[in-house]
Amino acid sequence: MQELQLLRDKLDMLMKKYSLLQTENARLKETVKVQLQTIDIQNARLATQEEQIQLMQFGQVITAPEERAMVRQQLDTVIGSIDQILNALND
């Protein structure tokens, strides 16, 4: 009789753990979904900014060192933002 009760107790414990794992799994799936949406948004922003940069390059030749520095700084900012998002997604 004690063995049967022990098995029931173990089963109850396993069922509780299973329920907790299901809840955690659902939460993690939602987190992944949100992160994938964030990646899609950032990729769209990146594509738009790349197009703008290409238009700038085709529209005018950047010859002044100040202009080059400004464009380089803008690119560094965009790349830095993307890196931060990717790092956040990996954490």
Please describe what this structure looks like.
This protein is mainly α and 91 residues long. 92% of the residues lie in helices and 0% in strands. It is built from 2 helices and no strands. It is rod-shaped, with a radius of gyration of 26 Å.
Which terms would index this structure?
91 residues; mainly alpha; 2 helices; coiled coil
Low-confidence stretches: none
Q: For the terminal residues, how far apart are their CA atoms? A: 49 Å
Give the total of beta strands: 0
- Element-by-element helix/strand order: HH
* Global Rg: 26 Å
Helical percentage: over 70%
Q: Main sheet, how many strands, which sense, barrel?
A: none
Keywords: Coiled coil
What's this, in brief?
Residues 4-31 form a coiled coil. Keywords: Coiled coil. The chain is an all-alpha fold and 91 residues long.
What is the secondary structure topology, with strand pairs?
Blueprint: H1 2-59, H2 65-90
